């Protein structure tokens, strides 16, 4: 029972450490202790089955509380929230097997091994088709820039390791202070053996030195006073309309045009940016018909002709022609109405934007009749870098769409392809919550640190913002309100690729290899019941 209660405690506090409705950008204080009870749960677990139950409890509670806003995902919310809850019950049940195994090691090693396994887990859950890089242990510390700058070397996973290591040490310290027997084994009768106090001190000193190194590096990076090579002036339009409602396409377009015309009359800009699928009728297929007459007061094409700047916006793109397969795309549209660049979203939302075996009739009927999904996107087939005209010459931009800016590998590909600025197009308005939008924003800001590229986020309802190359929030609009944000983005043309952009997730892969080695060693030994 103690094991389950400890797992439940972490399941309650871990979502509170992350961005949420109470602490909009998360709580660093909770981020230092929220996983400590879970660490103790696996230390106290009497056997592997108990540990698995504890992991499943943590997975269910933390996922439900941290992702409750998925219940607002249209008419098939039972799938969008229920699916992840069931998935993370399974994921965390498997994770529990690994964490329980390393908790049976010598007490002097298990805090570090706990952090290694957890880091490997967060990496695995953040990549691939089912990748979901939400709720990482590093996120509560995003508001502490001196702590986060190491991400340009290790990626976000270096911060995850540090945060979890500190929490595991906190759990171990509680064992030492409570007077649990001290020995080199794993159990002492019905009690877990704690770390030798002298080793506890050594771990503490090592953790402080490691933390001091991370912060010192962060201070060094933040002191960079390099002059920008160029500036890009952008207008980010936040229309705050329900882009999933049928029948309001013309009204939404009218709102976007009204806000844009007003902003363009007040600011000299190089680029106008609208959010994901702001143009819900495929522009490339209907530019000369629907968009020539809609909206009624002044058509979209007439607005373009009068605009002094190109528009980067989201729209379906039927790359096979009218009625053909479509991408969730970003289009760069010139004032004359011509499309000068197209990017099709490559990292699609699983089981919402992309469904495995959709081409099978039985699978398609299930999703049409039972789930309610009527169509799916095809993934884009290339990396696109848009060439923009800035006051100081050409600027090269990448446009990750929706939650692509949460995926380190996706953004790293853009950086290696020559991007100088990231322009994210997002619609989180359907969530109807601040926490969904701040969680997304928090994940995105690590991409700027990893690549040292500034990012602008143009969203339907939030968080429309400007992030500098150190991951710091520079400007933003209030969420769930109409507005336009004007910003001058500093462009650094001659900077080298960061260590992270060069070596990728090598640190996380190292954690994965260490986890595999530890588990091989653990499963060679007979299980000891505490």
Relevant terms:
530 residues; alpha/beta; Nitrilase/N-carbamoyl-D-aminoacid amidohydrolase; 6-stranded mixed beta sheet; 46% helix; globular
Supply the helix-strand structural class.
alpha/beta
Classify the beta-strand content into a percent band.
Answer: 5-15%
The tally of domains stands at 2
Number of helices: 19
Proportion in helices: 40-55%
Biggest β-sheet: strands ordered side by side in the sheet = 7-6-5-4-3-14
Radius of gyration: 25 Å
Say how many strands there are: 14
The biggest beta sheet is recorded as: 6 strands, mixed
Q: Roughly what is the average pLDDT, rounded to an integer? A: 90
Ends: how far apart?
14 Å
3D architecture notes:
By secondary structure, the protein is an alpha/beta fold. It folds into 2 domains: 2-224 and 505-524, no CATH class; 230-345 and 380-494, Carbon-nitrogen hydrolase (Nitrilase/N-carbamoyl-D-aminoacid amidohydrolase). It contains 19 helices and 14 strands. A 6-stranded mixed β-sheet has the order 7-6-5-4-3-14. Strand 3, helix 11 and strand 4 form a beta-alpha-beta unit. The longest helix is centred in the first third of the chain and has 27 residues, at 77-103. The chain is globular. The two termini are 14 Å apart.
